[in-house]
Amino acid sequence: MSVPMPLLISNLVGLFLLMAVGALAVRLKVVPLSITGQLSHLLMSVMTPAIIFRSMLQPFSQEFLRDSAVIFAAGCGLYLLSIGAALVLGKVFRVTPGRRGLWALCVAFPNNGFMGFPIIQALLGDTALALAAIMGMPFNIFLYTLGVRVLLSDREGESGGGVSLRKILLTPVNVATVLGLAAFLLQIPVPDAIYTPISYLADMATPMSMLIIGMGLTRCSASQVVRDRDVLAAGLSKLVLLPLLVFLALKVIPFGNELIAPVVLITVAMPTAAIVSALGEQHGLNTDLAVEISFLTGLLCILTVPLMLSLPL
User: Fold this and answer.
1) How far apart, in whole angstroms, are the C-alpha atoms of residue 33 and residue 218?
2) Which string of DSSP letters, residue by residue, matches 103-142?
3) Phi then psi for 187, rounded to 5 degrees?
4) Residues 187-192: what's their mean pLDDT?
5) More confident residue, 12 or 162
6) How many CA atoms lie within 13 A of 25 on its CB side?
7) Residue 256: exposed, middle, or buried by beta-carbon count in 10 A (0-12, 13-18, 19+)?
8) DSSP codes, 48-93
């Protein structure tokens, strides 16, 4: 399934203009940059779960149930491939020792929640968003298990043991996905008194996510970023090389539903996940590299996402 180019450009321009509003709001001191942490928590704990739950409220079909299992498996394959490719690319680009684990996570894990979900919904609709939410479950599983082990390779002698299974599984997004699947499987009717506020919160997710990303882009300067060879290598790997590798894999894998391949490609084409920086900080690493890679990929994806989505699947 190819995304119509006029629709793609129109939606992406609108989303990136919202990012510009967020950046201007900080630059003009309408809001402080420090507010992004609280807004991000609100987005991922309330608004994103609302948009995911709403996307699951659809008539029962065996096809969607089958597609859910397929895209969950595709997500597991995607993150295994992404982590492996990122580790290889880190050696190819001779990333500075002591930064390789964090660098690999920046390349392997995309901004699926803040940016991927809104773009998928805008371009492909609610059914595609529901599939993207299910693929988000392997994201959490691999990030907090194998991803932590890769991250801590920057700290000699440490591993990612002891990560809480509860932390991996009981995120608000995963809980909303499971509840939404239950409502879908059991065809539980949702009263208007409950559906209406959920819908209001869901409608806020896309503009809020774009505003937050725009605010976050003010943390770095372009001149600072372009002087770091590791950051530039990560930008090339994250936005071009890895999406092209996944595109080639998608071309040879037959999916029953034509939405699955575009959902996977859009997800992998997104910039670096903001959570990578937070995870590195939690484990005592210098996260300047992750912030700079997030900045660069967040800017350059304005050019690379349309190019990747113009590829014929």
Assistant:
1) 8
2) HHHHHH-B-IIIIIHHHHHHHH-HHHHHHHHHHHHHHHHH
3) 50, 50
4) 91
5) 12
6) 20
7) exposed
8) HHHHHHHHH-S---HHHHHHHHHHHHHHHHHHHHHHHHHHHHHHHT
Question: What is the per-residue DSSP string for 6-37?
Answer: HHHHHHHHHHHHHHHHHHHHHHTTSS-TTHHH
Indicate the SS3 state at residue 272.
strand
Q: Give the integer Cα–Cα distance in Å for 71 and 80.
A: 14
CA dist 263 and 116 (Å) reads 9
Q: What is the pTM of this model?
A: 0.80
Structure tokens at 100: 């390789």
- Give residue 57's pLDDT: 87
Banded pLDDT at 15 (limits 50, 70, 90): confident
Average pLDDT over residues 231-244: 96
pLDDT single digits (tens) 117-161 = 888 888 888 899 889 988 988 888 888 788 888 888 776 555 555
- Mean local confidence (pLDDT), 162-186: 78
DSSP secondary structure string for all residues of 162-205: T--HHHHH--HHHHHHHHHHHHHHHT----HHHHHHHHHHHHHH
